[in-house]
Amino acid sequence: MNIAIDGPAGAGKSTIAKRVAKELGYIYVDTGAMYRGIALYLLDYDIDIADAAHVEKKIENITIEIKYEEGVQQIYLNGVNVTARLRMEAVGNMASKASQLACVRAKLLHLQRQLARENDVVMDGRDIGTNILPDAEVKVYLTASSKVRAKRRYDEITANGNCADIDTIEADIITRDKQDMERAIAPLRQAEDAVCIDSSDMTIDEVVYHIMKLVSGERL
User: Maximum CA pair distance of the chain?
Assistant: First the structure.
């Protein structure tokens, strides 16, 4: 059983996908975190993504692994746990840009599809239902207004004791939406057979409930 959850940055895909996977006992595959892992590598080594051939060479032998430790997903880059660094704004922005490169997408595509072939999975990202898992049994396009998404991200940052400007966050979100929707390779869009859920005025429990109804075969 494959469940694909797509949508723009900050829509709550990861939070919802994790909850749905836990409810069903499925494996949660955070493709966004995998892209952020590559983005972190590009940032750490100051690799110019304008040179696609150079990027392809540099990422050829890197490893990105998903592991569960005490029930919590961890992302390992070249054997090092980098989970705590993946939510930085610079990493998210780089991930949006890097995901436009064919070599970056090819690097992760095989692993993602292999996981889905061998396991019951809930996978979230930008092009899961349209490109990675086009035959997924359940497809959801999860969205929310840019203001709501900015407020959620602002709360997440400030809750950890860090400073943030909500207007800057919203501007970054709008820019990333445009990048994701206009990229040449696998752009962000709702699959024709996906159910759109706008979570702007919904709680996490309400969104999870709607998706669980879809899994059980009920249409919203």
Answer: 48
Residue 72 neighbours by CB distance under 10 Å: 9
Among 126, 75, 123, 82, which Cα is nearest to 100's? 126
Q: Provide the H-helix boundaries in 27-165.
A: 31-44, 52-59, 89-98, 102-118, 146-159
| Helix-helix angle 31-44:52-59, to 10 degrees | 100
List per-residue pLDDT tens for the chain, 220 residues long: 999 999 998 899 989 999 999 999 898 988 888 999 999 999 999 999 999 999 999 999 998 888 878 878 889 999 999 999 998 989 999 998 998 899 998 998 988 898 899 889 999 988 999 999 999 999 999 999 999 999 999 998 999 888 999 999 999 999 999 998 998 888 899 999 999 999 999 999 999 999 999 999 865 4
Q: Kindly give, in sequence order, each residue whose CB lies less than 8 Å from that of residue 159, ignoring residues fewer than 6 positions away.
A: none
Pairing of strands 121-125, 80-81: unpaired
Cα–chain-centroid distance for residue 154? 18
CA distances for 80 relative to 63, 85, 138, 159, 165, angstroms? 10, 11, 33, 26, 31
Q: Tell me the domains of the chain and their CATH numbers.
A: 2-215 (3.40.50.300)
Are 27 and 214 a contacting pair, CB within 8 Å? Answer: no
